[in-house]
């Protein structure tokens, strides 16, 4: 149960972080957003990123072996990175319709899945 909760929290966390990091690129299509200066955009991104921490910190605390969770620190990090890339890919394909998913991206993801496999292999 802790593993599933950790993964769900990491997915939520990374969804907010992806929006904070890349959402402003899409928001720039809105007239009111274009009138904002860089500092305002940074503050909006920080506001969105705050929610990333609300999910990231509990995910790491619940999932970490040192706190009774199922994952080592390295496993948590590799899992988080793969979730980040999956969330980013889904976000990109849905929000930025001009991006394409090519064969080299699929190959890269296969290697990432292999990285997770080897990280969890005893």
UniProtKB/TrEMBL annotation:
<feature type="transmembrane region" description="Helical">
    <location>
        <begin position="36"/>
        <end position="55"/>
    </location>
</feature>
<protein>
    <recommendedName>
        <fullName>DMT family protein</fullName>
    </recommendedName>
</protein>
<dbReference type="InterPro" id="IPR007437">
    <property type="entry name" value="DUF486"/>
</dbReference>
<feature type="transmembrane region" description="Helical">
    <location>
        <begin position="76"/>
        <end position="96"/>
    </location>
</feature>
<keyword id="KW-1133">Transmembrane helix</keyword>
<keyword id="KW-0812">Transmembrane</keyword>
<feature type="transmembrane region" description="Helical">
    <location>
        <begin position="102"/>
        <end position="120"/>
    </location>
</feature>
<dbReference type="Pfam" id="PF04342">
    <property type="entry name" value="DMT_6"/>
</dbReference>
<keyword id="KW-0472">Membrane</keyword>
